[in-house]
Amino acid sequence: MPQAVWSFRLSHAPLRFAQGRGTDEGVRPYTGYNFGMRAVISGLMLLGLLGQLHAQGKNAAGARVVTVPATIDHNRVVIQGDLRLPDGSMQTVRVWVDNGDPDLNLSRRLATLLSLPVKCGDQECSSPPPEEIVIGGMNVPLKAVNEAKIALRPVNEAAVLAPGMNAEINLPSSILRQYDVLIDFVERKFSIGAPGTIHFHGASGKALVNAQNGLIQVPSQIEGKKYNLALNVGSSTSFLSEELFDKLAAAHGDWPRMTGAVGSANMWGASEETKWKVMSVERVQFGPLFLTNVPMVALPKPAVNFFEKRVAMPTVGLVGSNMLLNYRVGLDYAHSTVFFDLGRAYRFPDFDVVGLILRPEGDGRFTILGVADIDGKPLVDGVEGGDHLEAVDDLPISGVTMGQVWSMLGGTPGQEKKLTIERGGKEFFLTAKVQHFLGDSREDKDGKKK
Q: What stretch of H or E contains 295?
């Protein structure tokens, strides 16, 4: 059901007033009787209208399902929500929909606005969770989590939940698991409702749902062997255990690969991203879906162990939203079922970009960590680690999101981009070409289909 929208229109027929005591054709003079009756009728209509609006207001506050617009930024889903402040007023915030994380996270600024008591350790801070968040008029309680996590950041970064994102709180799996959820990547909408309220469409398959935290694993196959892969719309890219990644890479030397995370694989700008191994896996059966040419990042063993412990079952990685942008993804937690409704066939070229590896900073700047390479050859000349990217084609990037920067760095292979670089307090310019990373394994070196 779409978000309730209240609208009403009072239409009045045009009135023509009699002149003097006479009457014109089709015009009645306002007699005392007519005036009194009109006043009574108008009063009754007004009372009825007020009652209707009051009922609608109550229904919205207790809505069982709502649909709101969503922003897809760096393949992540961001919506708007409202939190009640101590004085009773409402604060509108941007909310990151993250079904791949059971933890509730919020910015320090938000905790301060909500007057939440904050405790800090060496690595992070925490507070009690807000009572609830209102999404499209629907109250979503947050007390299912014991605490909210708050990143330990400088005072001037108090509004930052995660660098490179425009959001101050997330909606984690531990909350989402109590609802029906529909993420419409095609039309950029997000729906949430009580179990049984959303009518899902598309190919469906059984999922393995952790009953405690709502994390989802989907039975999958790669090269005819069965594995579990997480369904994680909060991740901008997909991952595969390094052990399985290396086996597939050794067996398929023709599968496109590269070193260094660019495009959607450039998630947060961790230093390790300069060395990440990325490969296009030819085929992955993911529940009812048969995915082809799936860009996947090698996931080290310690990370795999962490995810297995958190989900309490074996897993070899995850499918992120980079492979789901053509779908309406339904999460039927009550019946442990996932739905994939295909909305379009065209696949956007995620890796037709300039080969920089970036780190978004808390102050809104972007540091260049390094340059991606193929077969050991760096693909952007004149750039050093530690440089700052200031502008792309003369458009300043300070304060924009990671997704917006990568949109600016994307284009047609061979297209030139003017980069403004800052190094040691001095600016200079250079030209870099858009590269076609992770091309289809059926393409030859000239980019033509075999």
A: strand 289-299
Beta strand 317-320 pairing with 225-232 = parallel
β-bridge partners, 433:
416
Question: Distance between CA 340 and CA 125 in Å, rounded?
Answer: 37
Superfamily of domain 67-182: Acid Proteases (2.40.70.10)
Query: Which run of H or E residues covers position 299?
Result: strand 289-299
273: left (phi over 0), alpha (psi -120 to 50) or beta: alpha
Phi-psi region of 288 (alpha: psi -120 to 50; beta: other; left: phi over 0): alpha
Angstrom distance (rounded) from CA 219 to CA 418: 45
Alpha carbon distance, N-terminus to C-terminus of the chain: 47
User: Buried b / exposed e across 136-156, counting CB within 10 Å, b at 16+?
Assistant: bbbebebebbeebbbbebeee
Instruction: Tell me the β-bridge partners of 238.
Output: 296
What is the number of H-type helices and E-type strands within the chain? Answer: 6, 34
pLDDT at 34: 44
pLDDT of amino acid 123: 87
Antiparallel, parallel or unpaired: β 189-193 and 65-69: antiparallel
Angle between helices 301-311 and 242-251 (to 10 degrees): 130
Q: Let me know: does 140 contact 192? Beta carbons within 8 Å.
A: yes
CATH of 211-327 given 3.40.50.80, 3.40.390.30, 2.30.42.10, 2.40.70.10: 2.40.70.10
d(CA 104, CA 25): 71
Residues of the chain with pLDDT under 50: 1-47, 49-60, 441-450
Find the angle CA(385)-CA(386)-CA(390) to the nearest 5 degrees: 110
pTM as predicted: 0.84
Residue 191: the pLDDT is: 99
Q: Check residue 440 and give its pLDDT.
A: 61
Q: What is the pLDDT of residue 40?
A: 42
Residues of the chain with CATH 2.40.70.10: 67-182, 211-327
* CATH class (in words) of the domain with range 352-436: mainly beta
Per-residue model confidence (pLDDT) at position 62: 61
